[in-house]
Design goal:
Blueprint (H helix, E strand, L loop, with lengths): L9 H19 L4 E2 L1 H8 L3 H9 L11 E2 H11 L6 E6 L3 H9 L7 E8 L8 E2 L2 E5 L3 H8 L3 E4 L3 H13 L4 E4 L12 E4 L2 H14 L1
Parallel strand pairs: 3-4, 3-7, 4-6, 7-8, 8-9
Antiparallel strand pairs: 1-2, 5-6
Helix pairs in contact: 1-4, 2-3
Length: about 210
């Protein structure tokens, strides 16, 4: 069964990187096999959900045996294209943008911020680590030359939609949006919204009610 033959739920796809990181940790700890119960305990995801998620991709394990860790790792690496480096650009190099460039996805050596853009002349030309902040006017030229695949937006909300329009016209298919704006994009373009205010409100709610 392939992803082309059945529509994988978005919730399942969002959990795949969690599975990958956990299985990678097991592999590096010389663990040979793991059960859905052990995966459940380690990830805090119920085992029925894990088994259902895995079932979309065929027989990944055997009843009574569990899952071969090396096989799972290779599967997730291939499924998530972790054997390829995903190149990322960031637009908006204020405090948050600078922090993200400095962090530069050290959680994974398969994703890397390769370019940073801003419209402020006081910021353009500055270096954050090894990355020089480029003028946004050079955006299309640079992302094509560097084969950028994903863009992170950390700009004021008032500029978010116009920049999203520009980003999608350039052929970018993935946007990670740190602005409070809900972006309108063409079909085929995927946007993940990261609203820190909402995340904090949710955290406070759960702290008070659990």
């Amino acid at each position: 069964m392939s992803k082309e033959e059945i529509k994988i739920p978005k919730a399942t796809l969002k959990r795949l990187p969690l599975y990958y990181r956990f299985v990678d940790t097991l592999y590096n700890s010389n663990v040979d096999r793991v059960s859905s119960k052990e995966l459940s305990e380690g990830l805090q995801i119920d085992s029925a959900t894990i088994r259902r998620d895995f079932s979309y991709f065929g027989e990944l394990g055997k009843k009574g045996y569990g899952y071969n860790v090396a096989y799972l790792l290779n599967f997730f690496k291939t499924t998530l294209q972790q054997d390829m480096i995903t190149k990322v650009a960031i637009i908006g190099v204020g405090n948050l943008g600078t922090a993200l460039v400095n962090y530069n996805f050290t959680v994974s050596d398969r994703m890397k911020i390769e370019a940073a853009f801003d419209a402020d002349p006081a910021v353009i030309g500055k270096h954050i680590g090894k990355i020089e902040v480029q003028d946004i006017e050079r955006f299309e030229q640079i992302i094509e030359a560097q084969d950028i695949q994903i863009v992170i937006l950390t700009v004021p909300g008032t500029a978010a939609q116009s920049l999203a329009n520009r980003v999608t016209k350039s052929g970018i298919k993935g946007i990670l949006n740190f602005t409070p704006e809900r972006l309108t994009v063409p079909s085929g373009v995927h946007v993940h919204h990261i609203d820190l205010g909402i995340e904090l409100q949710s955290l406070i709610f759960f702290m008070k009610n659990h």
